[in-house]
Fold:
Amino acid sequence: MRIEDKLYLIGYNIDEESHLGVSDPNECKRCQGRPCTYICPAGVYSYDDEEDKLSINYDACVECGTCRIVCSYITWRYPRGGFGVQYKFG
Amino acid sequence: MRKNDFDVIIVGAGPAGLAAGYVLAKEGINVAIIERGIFPGSKNVMGGIFYRSSLDDLIPDFYKEAPLERHIVEQKIWLLSDDSMFSVGLKSEKYNAEPYNCFSVFRAKFDKWFAKKVLDASAMIINETVVKELILDKEKVVGVRTDRPNGDLYSDVVISAEGVNSFLPKYLGLRREINTNNVALGVKEVIELPDKVINDRFGVSNSSEGVAIEITGPYFKEMRAMGFVYTNRNSLSIGIGAVIEDLVRLKINPNDLLETLKGHPAIKPLISGSETKEYMAHMIPEGGYYSMPKLYYDGFMVVGDAAMLVNSIHREGANLAIESGKFAAKTYIEARKIGDFSQRTLSAYQKKLEESFVLKDLKTYRNLPKLLEEKKYLISKYPKFLIDAMYEIYNVDRVSKSDKIKLILNKAKKEIGYFNIIKDIFSVWRNFK
Ligand SMILES: Cc1cc2nc3c(=O)[nH]c(=O)nc-3n(C[C@H](O)[C@H](O)[C@H](O)COP(=O)(O)OP(=O)(O)OC[C@H]3O[C@@H](n4cnc5c(N)ncnc54)[C@H](O)[C@@H]3O)c2cc1C
Ligand code: SF4
Ligand code: SF4
Structure:
């Protein structure tokens, strides 16, 4: 099963403001291998080669914190209280 | 003088925070637990096998009313190679007798139930609120700043029960950022199957008996990875945790890793015809004893995953979280008697942990994370050799048994080397001494 299909199964309360970002977008341009694009279990990060820019689909984030540990340029916060992922089973 | 809003503020309503809150509330202490989810458990994930004894201590016979799935009667370890599976395990009628050893659980349900018990004991739980930082008065922690308007709250002591993504101990300089070798990423699916099908496939006689399978071996390359399949009443929990450093090194997407596990010939028939109900991910602090932060500060203690209290070899985490929460609460109660919440008094918390099985166990395995970091082949080469040897022994191809043994020994010599085997045995032995 693809990540995209699995994400449909998760409940979210999506905030209009993003809790994820990068401190220096220029670092992404020269980043080796771009680990954020394959390490995230929710496929939040992808690199847009045409725009030469990292795109962050923060709605899908399951708040595991992995990206933050893999890359120090990622500015990571928890979503505001009550927002974000809501598991039924967990 | 500023008045305290609470005697104790606990950050995080997982098993660690809830256990601490329960002990304090039972003693009539004015305690608040702050949780960022809409209810405790809504953001929490575990495999999850829950060991009874630590909670039974607090809430005797809790298992008779808690939302549990099955009690586990059989525990297995599977070693997987590309086309084979080697299995060892224990099924015992002793595990089938009350009060039981462990259960499969869903955290979203279990934590919610536990939180209700804590509320009934008259602790306050403040949901939908993120603690952003600590409030200090000179060198002492005196409260927390939340993301609510006018959201500062004051107390004698703050307990950090925030789980693996904890910020507060770092804020005080009690530890550095965790690194990619100290922490695993776990991904999991809950997949639905009729209970009768589960009973048949896993060889149990009714829908309250359960099986837990732990999975490792050369199928996961040289990755420090551990898969699992646990039976719930009408579903299976299937997942895999892998050290983040290894995922990055091998450029592996965690969902692909889980799909690989689901595709193994030994796993496929277990899950065939099932429907995925939920997908989730969470980190596991696997660094062990040496990765622990300092556990106390003036007006502050750290419990559970925030303190890196996980025994990954035995998949014990939630029970250690509960145990540490209890010790922190008891330490507060003692400190309150003398009215001193300084480091010196709160250091008794560390002592209690050291004297209990929690740190005794973590100490036993203290060198294991480092050993596996340096010798990743230990988790692939030896299981592979074992699987190949077993194959030779069972495969009747008109080669005599004595020739087979020669063949196996030759393989050991060629693929690993006798000298290396002795060296590895010695280093494993030395690391457990
Ligand atoms: C895939 C996987 C499998 C596992 N399998 C097992 C198993 O089979 N058996 C076992 O015993 N253990 C298992 N564990 C480990 C176990 O889940 C943890 O050890 C245990 O949950 C730790 O409890 P805790 O209370 O310390 O933290 P958590 O359960 O993580 O709870 C922390 C709580 O704090 C809240 N929080 C965090 N930060 C803030 C903040 N700033 N403000 C407000 N609220 C906050 C969170 O929302 C959460 O509710 C597993 C873990 C994973 C990821
Ligand atoms: S966020 Fe970090 S890992 Fe991702 S592309 Fe940018 S620098 Fe690289
Ligand atoms: S926290 Fe986890 S799910 Fe969210 S973006 Fe980072 S890696 Fe992806």
